[in-house]
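hi support,

uploading two proteins for the ticket. first:
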Amino acid sequence: MTLAAVTEDTSLERALATLEWRLLEASRVELPELRQTTLPGGTMRFHYVVTGSLDLRTPGESLTLRAGDFVLLSGVAPHVVTAAEPAVVVTGALQCAGCDTTRLVGVLPDVLVACGFSTRDPDMAQLVEILVREVAGSDGRPGSSVIADRFATLIASAAVRSWAENGGALESWLVGQRDPHIARAIEAMRGDPGNAWTLESLARVARSSRSVFAGRFRELVGESPTRYLTALRMEQAERLLRSERLTIGEAAQRLGYGSDAAFSRAFRRHAGESPATWRRRALQPNP
């Protein structure tokens, strides 16, 4: 394991250690095909797809969730859930009790997707359903709410870890503690990865010269701004490709690539296969 990997693991552990979650509600819901539910903003929510698939739409994006996927929504905006096919979903509301919620929402994406959560963290996925049973049978049992909160903390923390391991980034949260100027540049890239960012424009965001910005960024993040931006775009590309509503060309355009060919080359370097091949494999139903 490289020094950078050790540092990244340690940083993630420190970040997760600050998170403590309180469960506000949880239930297991069966949704017939095309059932649509609109959920208001203002509350952090999660959905875990047990069977079937869901289309999830927010003001900023739309994506398809399949069996085994877990999604955590910041609660900033309302969202609409539609059963693309008959589905069973565990859904609930959370409150971050042991952290600065404003900072957390500013760093985590509005829609945090832990794709293949049941495969990556099978024990945690089982715990989601155990959580529902604990809530359903909690009437009159002492300590049930405390136990449910502990379960929620484990599940949500595992989802954040899965997201981070799959290309998500807590950098602006962690880096911001050491250099708020670099954190501003990271937040700008994460907020608009399709923008035609250059070293000069990012240095202006960070209120720094090009050379100082580039050196400080590499020191804190472990890679150049250009490599970080590419990795961020590929993270977003995987999410966009999981939506059947977007063509590959539309995904390329959203991410700032001037042509499908340029996007395909970047994605192939990232995933080892073309966007079309990756999409077909990702959209195959779970066995």
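and the second one:
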Amino acid sequence: MKKYISRFHYLTQDLPHRTHREQVQIACEAGANWIQYRCLSKPDEALLEELHQVAAICDDWGATLIVTNHVHLVHLADIQGVHIEDMAADLAAIRKEIGEDKTLGCSAHSIDDIRRHWISGAADYVGCGPFAVTQTKPNNFPPLGTIGYEGILQQLIPDGIDLPLIAVGGINAANVTQVLATGVFGVAVSGAVNLSPEPGAMIKEIYRKVL
């Protein structure tokens, strides 16, 4: 089942000065239509309370709401899907758990990761990165850069892989045009917006370059 995938994914993060709800409100008001709620620091009860608040905002603005990793919460709030960061996760099992109507995204770093997700038959899109060094989600993967994305994209067509590729990790207003020029379907941003003194204005600036 083909699903709508935005070319601009906005991810919330744990911040000392702004709640996830406030981040989502700012993002939606600025025009973001795809919100990924990425909170890995709260117990289920607190997550659900905030998810209901976030879902109400997304509903008001017509934005898609994706939750990071918390598969067991997908049916407990008005959530449209889940993004799985574990590259070795059993996506077929997760698809069975969440059902066909929910959107299922997954993380990848290499063409081998993407092939595995494609073979599972469960993924709707792939978040591939990091493009550059990022402090939002520290990891040991070397940055792909534009050459890395170009190399991956060149292998998708001959392999018959038809998954939207979302570039993620270290993407900002200064490099987003360069990233999109590689041919990726879209981009995901977090720190570039959330750590900006004017997050709403930053979303608008990046979003204009994506459209």
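thanks. also noticed: The chain has one domain: 8-210.
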